[in-house]
UniProtKB/TrEMBL annotation:
Protein name: carbonyl reductase (NADPH)
Xref: Pfam families: adh_short
Keyword Signal: no
GO cellular component: cytoplasm
Native organism: Nothocercus nigrocapillus
Cell compartment(s), UniProt: Cytoplasm
Predominant localisation class: cytoplasm
Keyword field contains Acetylation: no
Gene3D superfamilies for the chain: NAD(P)-binding Rossmann-like Domain
InterPro entries assigned: CBR1-like, NAD(P)-bd_dom_sf, Sc_DH/Rdtase_CS, SDR_fam
EC number: 1.1.1.184
Stated family: Belongs to the short-chain dehydrogenases/reductases (SDR) family.
Length: 276
């Protein structure tokens, strides 16, 4: 088993994830894994970074596929005995002009952004080593979407006692409500992406609490963040930040020094803790 520290970035064949891998290759003292659901795209991305003189490793990972997540888990366990840095970056967003029914957009978006990210966490968080860092890439849209929720939902999502099971039930209910076209009456905002990212931010708050309860003394720091508005296939060419600039906050959280006590369980953008 290798004692080399290891970092893993989900959805890193392009966009912000790719830029996070690039930055980690330069700044993280250890092996960096670029992962992609499509091995061809993943290997091509690795080759691109090799041309820059960087040396990421590759592992396949489709966060929608439990078998794929478990294969990565087993690999990390066997080869490294765990993981030091996990960046949950993979995500999707329907284009504004997409004509798919809202219920379809809700189901598909929640499947990857919330349920897929949660499955990765369920399988990999137990492997995170002492002093490890976990970064869940959410979005500032989670804050604006929260403000558009009913008072009752806002209270649940801001609660310091909400459980992961309750959160999963709420995310499932959103998808069900969109199918019945009752989501607005039930207090949900009209954004599937926004609700999926509320899920990621609240999940991060819950996971940080669980780490405090179950792994006190392990000094693990886990946060949600927004990379900003970044020029990628998701956000388009008019966005303000380059992918490398978008990677800055996730990388800052991934490389917090060993003696840092925080941030932990926070929502961070531009390296600053924001009020949830
Ligand atoms: P992007 O360029 O579309 O890249 C998304 C990445 O996620 C791609 O590598 C994609 O792989 C991967 N992915 C999607 N579904 C996956 C799955 N099931 N399993 C594994 N990988 C999967 O988007 P981006 O702008 O870099 O976004 C990265 C993250 O930042 C997302 O979580 C996004 O919500 C968040 N974010 C972005 C912005 C922005 O302005 N760009 C703002 C706030 C938050 P494929 O190439 O195979 O599709």
């Amino acid at each position: 088993m290798s004692s080399t520290p290891v970092a893993v970035v989900t959805g890193s064949n392009k966009g912000i994830g790719f830029a996070i891998v690039r930055a980690l290759c330069k700044q993280f003292q250890g092996d960096v894994f670029l992962t992609a659901r499509d091995p061809g795209k993943g290997q091509a991305a690795v080759a691109k970074l090799q041309e820059e003189g960087l040396h990421p490793f590759f592992h396949q990972l489709d966060i929608d596929d439990l078998q794929s997540i478990r294969a990565l888990r087993d690999f990390l366990k066997e080869k490294y005995g765990g993981v030091n840095v996990l960046v949950n970056n993979a995500g999707i967003a329907f284009k504004v002009l997409d004509t798919s029914p809202f219920a379809v957009q809700a189901e598909v978006t929640l499947k990857t952004n919330f349920f897929g990210t949660r499955n990765v966490c369920t399988e990999l968080l137990p492997l995170v080593k002492p002093y490890g860092k976990v970064v869940n890439v959410s979005s500032s849209v989670s804050i604006s979407a929260l403000a558009s929720c009913s008072k009752e939902l806002q209270q649940k999502f801001r609660s310091d006692t909400v459980t992961e099971e309750e959160l999963v039930k709420l995310m499932t209910k959103f998808v069900e409500d969109t199918k019945k076209n009752t989501h607005e009456k039930e207090g949900w905002p009209n954004t599937a992406y926004g609700v999926s990212k509320i899920g990621v931010t609240v999940l991060s708050r819950i996971q940080a609490r669980m780490i405090n309860e179950k792994r006190k003394g392990d000094h693990i720091l886990l946060n949600a963040c927004c990379p900003g508005w970044v020029r990628t296939d998701m956000a388009g060419p008019r966005a303000l930040k380059s992918p490398d600039e978008g990677a800055e906050t996730p990388v800052y959280l991934a490389l917090l020094p060993a003696d840092a006590n925080g941030p932990h369980g926070q929502f961070v953008s531009d390296k600053t803790v924001r009020t949830w």
